[in-house]
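hey so u asked for the seq, here:
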Amino acid sequence: MSETVKQKKKTNSTDRSLKILIGIFALVLVLFGVLLYFTAKKESALKGADQAIRLSAQGGFDCEYAEAQKLYAFGEGVLKVTEDRTAYLTLSGNEVYSKNIKYTNPQCYIRDGKAVVFDYNGYAFMVLDKDQVVFEKPTENKVKGAKLSDNGKCAIITDSDEGYGKVTIYDEKGSFIAAWESSDSGYPIDVTFSKDDSFFAISTVNTMGAVNRPYIRLFAIVDTGTKFSASDYGLYTSDDAQLFGSVVYGGNRLFTFTANKIFTLENDKLVALSGEYGSINYVNSVDDMLFMIYSDGINQKNSLAIINSKGETIYDSLIGSSVNAVSVKDDKYAVSVDNRIYIFKSNGNVISDISVDEEVLRIGFIENDKLVVISTGGVHTINY
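ran it, structure tokens below
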């Protein structure tokens, strides 16, 4: 082979190697550019808050998204609720105690250090605290909902063989207080307790007439010294044909809500407050205030309104598009919306505005100014 041919082959080989190196280098540059773009995008999303927190760097434990969906912030850790087991875990993921169950569709409601876990459309429920299962009971009819009072009393909404539905009230230890069966007021939708547990209210809707008719049933709880009893206190309705979706006590005043209006019990009558809200989405009692999240319509941004016990709005401001979770403890309120977590005092002052880098599923207060955040990547704590 001549020297010219050898030299030509060597040159072609060098050119191919050079082209491959250039191609690899170009690919690396493209990948680096893409990575830089998404990193910058995430950094940009975290700007504007008091704190920008990467949840993976915080205390807690990682878990898969499917497991995270079964976790609820509870006590000083989390409650894991599955079809066959309920377990209280520490923030390190260690089990404190557990209870085997057989629930088809387990649901959980948490309030002030206690939780009620019930089988939706099933026949059982139980109440827990951070130390133990306080009590567990079967039901005769399908469970439709459950609520707790600040002091640990429990209300269970079930179907009824004799009427539209039934609400049964239990004390803190699981002893029966009273049961109300709806024969003409319609289907029970929601139930709430007054702050001192002296009353409980039930919202219902009667769909049997030409027009839907909403009602509020109010009952007084009496402590006889040896046991509790309940008596019928009042029946209230409105000409508004929309149903009362929820009932909440703000201080000592009872409020109820249609899709876009607020009603309050005043001088033994249900009175509509001034103003209309496109769509009322969340309502919570915080100390003596009402915290209400609403939007002007579908696909519109959400606003937070704070209403005092006189029915006066003391705060009203946009907070974001997608509300992920809310939590209440004493006079503090936290809401996760989009990539932010806002923490308020009951008077409307913002304690903290935190940006996070993972989708939030649930949140909950614990001691020492900390918040448990259950995200798609696990369980973490943040200081506020």
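The CA atoms of residues 52 and 124 lie 43 Å apart. The mean pLDDT is 88.
lmk if thats what u needed
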